[in-house]
């Protein structure tokens, strides 16, 4: 199961016998949005921000939505396989099993399920606990310009999540307080070359919403989204700096510059 299937499983478990409308109201969601997430016919996923908000409202530990007990994971995986096997046997019996006695039918169905029962017992006894160092980082369809600026999306789509190791990131020199704050966006343009090249994926920390020292930031200025170096020029201005010498630096008013995140790592392994 991927991260969104796990979240959906936990969401269903959390709702239980409660009215979905009441849950949506309590969580600050539109009922239609919640219904889309729960539906098997839509591709709407439970995103990071909403998951963290629900955890806070319900008093759940941060990251509760992203994990599943081993026995639940095994039962879910085996349940999917058992459904497929049972369906196949039923389809076979429906097509060509009219002359098969009822007792034989039951034995065939039992035989289809038996190996899976054995697998479940073995997994329950031998499967180790959830260990390891891998976490998921959401990769958003956000193109931040390293040049003329990009107009930000109101509702950015999410690409497939990227699995990374927090300890390995720290070994590379990446400093962060909580991996839930790490996201991925895409650099666009040439003004930050050679540090960041056109279309390079970037790991950013979205918990940093103000200037915390010289560095490369993801920020809005003049209704556009940028990735540039920022330095304090004076009490009222930042200096917006391009690493590419062919692009001019400029002064921007600090009160008109809205920092969205700090860039921590270029996915080509260039530390910034």
TrEMBL record:
InterPro entries (UniProt xref): LexA-like, LexA/Signal_pep-like_sf, Peptidase_S24_S26A/B/C
Residues covered by the Peptidase S24/S26A/S26B/S26C domain: 169-263
Pfam families membership: Peptidase_S24 (PF00717)
Matches recorded under SUPFAM superfamilies: LexA/Signal peptidase
Keywords: DNA-binding, Transcription, Transcription regulation
PANTHER family documented for this protein: FELS-1 PROPHAGE TRANSCRIPTIONAL REGULATOR (PTHR40661:SF3), PTHR40661
Protein name from the UniProt record: S24 family peptidase
Species of provenance: Pseudomonas oryzicola
């Amino acid at each position: 199961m991927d991260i969104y299937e796990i979240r959906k499983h936990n969401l269903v478990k959390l709702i239980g016998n409660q009215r979905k409308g009441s849950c949506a109201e309590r969580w600050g969601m539109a009922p239609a949005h919640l219904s889309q997430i729960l539906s098997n016919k839509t591709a709407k996923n439970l995103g990071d921000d909403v998951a963290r908000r629900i955890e806070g409202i319900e008093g759940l530990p941060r990251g509760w939505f992203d994990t599943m007990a081993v026995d639940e994971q095994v039962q879910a995986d085996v349940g999917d396989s058992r459904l497929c096997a049972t369906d196949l046997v039923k389809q076979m019996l429906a097509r060509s099993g009219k002359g098969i006695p009822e007792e034989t039918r039951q034995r065939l169905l039992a035989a289809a399920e038996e190996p899976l029962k054995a697998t479940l017992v073995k997994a329950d006894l031998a499967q180790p606990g959830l260990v390891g160092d891998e976490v998921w980082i959401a990769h958003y369809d956000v193109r931040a310009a390293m040049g003329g600026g990009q107009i930000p999306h109101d509702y950015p789509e999410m690409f497939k999540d990227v699995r990374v190791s927090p300890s390995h990131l720290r070994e590379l020199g990446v400093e962060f307080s909580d991996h839930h704050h790490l996201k991925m966006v895409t650099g666009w343009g040439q003004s930050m070359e050679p540090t960041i090249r056109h279309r390079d994926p970037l790991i950013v920390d979205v918990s940093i919403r103000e200037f915390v020292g010289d560095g490369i930031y993801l920020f809005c200025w003049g209704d556009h989204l940028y990735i540039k170096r920022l330095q304090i020029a004076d009490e009222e201005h930042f200096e917006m700096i391009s690493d590419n010498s062919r692009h001019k630096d400029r002064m921007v008013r600090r009160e008109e510059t809205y920092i969205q995140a700090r860039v921590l790592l270029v996915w080509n392994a260039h530390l910034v």
